[in-house]
Design goal:
Elements: E1 30-33, E2 40-45, E3 48-51, H1 52-57, H2 77-80, H3 83-98, H4 109-115, E4 116-118, E5 123-125, E6 133-136, H5 140-150, E7 167-169, E8 175-177, E9 182-183, E10 186-189, E11 198-201, E12 205-206, E13 209-215, H6 230-233, E14 234-241, E15 244-245, H7 246-252, E16 266-268, E17 273-274, H8 275-278, E18 282-283, E19 303-304, E20 307-313, E21 320-326, H9 334-342, E22 353-355, H10 370-373, E23 381-382, E24 388-389, E25 397-406, E26 409-421
Parallel strand pairs: 6-22, 8-16, 9-26
Antiparallel strand pairs: 1-2, 1-5, 2-3, 3-4, 6-7, 10-11, 12-15, 13-14, 13-22, 14-16, 14-17, 18-19, 20-21, 20-25, 23-24, 25-26
The structure holds manganese (II) ion.
Manganese (II) ion binds at residues 135, 208, 210, 242, 355, 357-358.
């Protein structure tokens, strides 16, 4: 099925800056509100939010399957019940209405005043009601770095790593939208091997540069989703900062894995970029050797070329880029992750979120965590502001950005930013 909105020749009658993440070919979905507007479903072109509830009320979506309650809501989950075809039709309709060749909406000033809101005049909420959240560990560079630091450089990857897209079930209650500050977590740590544990604020606070995908409603309990079917069950993606307390993590993680080191907060970007919008940026993934089980085999290019960047901004100072990576480095792609997640019959729901795991690249400036960038705190990062960092300090803001670009079309995610406040 051809996706109208992906046509590179489309141009919106809304002015879009050349380096904007939100041309007419993006059309992401999110939730906006302000003093006058109750929370509602919206999209975005350039620096304008598009009020989709209002578009619906004015009759522009009349022949689509949606009802007012799908847009008059604090979450995208309602509109996601129409699945891939439903959301694709909605995205295509918005592209039609906002293309410069279409005068219908463009020439109706009174409707425009009701539908378009400048981005600075709206706030975003968490876009989806997240039922379950899973975090994978699918970057071979990251897993190799961590294995090298904590175990054995000669056997950095555990024996299962190239056979299984390793993951764990995280906590959804503490996932917050970009701009939400978080307090430094407190917990148990064991800084000295020959002494007992201590309790207090985390001293090795870290970020993890990740992407996350969000699913539609899945199949009944007991059924599986194949790598071929996976694209039809994936709605879209967001930037994901999996905040991590390294000192708490290293003491608590045996034998059941991460717990309080991770569940104090994760931050996501506000606009969900649909998987449809990312189709033109597919790229082949790394060669997988040894050969994977047949349920993990896949056809076609399933990695995505998303350029990623992390910045640290000390309070009231200039931000510095400390890492540039790319989602294309993922060893296990998201089709394989979803196939693996459901091969045992585990059911998934609309709004569930699946993070990639830290996305590190092959070079030292492409590592997606402070743990790797400072090599466990043995190296110091110099920031443009003159400050130095090994881990994240109080009142630092961590900003992640991501975008795809080819044929002169840039599809981006905006950013996910989060400030760390002192421990409570
Ligand atoms: Mn993680």
């Amino acid at each position: 099925m051809k996706i109208f909105a992906n046509n590179k020749h489309l141009k919106s009658w809304i002015e879009v800056e050349k380096d904007s993440d939100f041309p007419i070919q993006n059309i992401p979905f999110g939730i906006i509100f302000n003093k006058e507007l109750s929370p509602r479903v919206a999209s975005r072109i350039g620096d304008f939010a598009i009020d989709i509830l209002q578009l619906f009320k004015l009759g522009y979506l009349d022949d689509l399957a949606f009802t007012a309650k799908d847009f008059d809501t604090s979450y995208l989950n309602n509109m996601m019940r129409f699945g891939k075809i439903g959301t694709r039709k909605l995205r295509d309709r918005i592209a039609v209405l906002f293309d410069e060749s279409n005068l219908v909406l463009q020439s109706n000033k009174s409707h425009l005043n009701q539908i378009l809101i400048p981005i600075p005049d709206v706030e975003n909420l968490l876009p989806v009601e997240i039922g379950d959240y899973t975090d994978f560990y699918s970057s071979i560079e990251h897993a190799t770095n961590v294995g090298t630091m904590f175990r054995d450089p000669n056997n950095a990857l555990l024996p299962n790593w190239k056979h299984i897209p390793v993951g764990y079930h995280g906590r959804s209650s503490s996932i917050v939208v970009s701009g939400t500050p978080l307090h430094r977590p407190k917990g148990q740590q064991k800084p000295k091997a020959d002494e007992g544990p201590v309790f207090g604020p985390c001293k090795m606070l870290d970020f993890e540069l990740e992407m996350a995908f969000i699913t539609y409603e899945g199949k009944p309990l007991g059924d599986s989703i194949s790598t071929k079917e996976a694209d039809d069950y994936i709605f879209g993606m967001v930037l994901f900062n999996d905040w991590s307390a390294r000192d708490i993590q290293s003491w608590e993680y045996v034998p059941l894995g991460p717990f309080l080191a991770k569940n104090f907060g994760s931050s996501v970007s506000a606009w969900v970029v649909t998987l449809d919008a990312l189709e033109n940026y597919r790229i082949s993934g790394p060669n997988q050797e040894p050969k994977v089980f047949s349920y993990l085999e896949y056809e076609g290019d399933k990695n995505i070329d998303i350029k990623l960047e992390v910045l640290i901004q000390p309070e009231n100072k200039e931000a510095s880029t400390i890492c540039k990576s790319n989602y294309k480095y993922m060893y296990w792609n998201q089709n394989q992750q979803l196939a693996h997640h459901t091969i045992n019959g585990c059911n998934i729901h609309a709004g569930d979120m699946y993070a990639s795991g830290t996305i590190s690249g092959p070079t030292e400036d492409s590592y997606g965590s402070m743990l790797e960038l400072s090599w466990k705190g043995t190296k110091t990062l110099k920031l443009k502001s003159g400050d130095e960092r090994k881990f994240i300090e109080d009142n630092d803001t961590v900003i992640m950005k991501g975008y795809c670009e080819n044929n002169g079309i840039r599809i981006g995610f905006g950013e996910v930013s989060g400030k760390i406040l002192p421990a409570k």
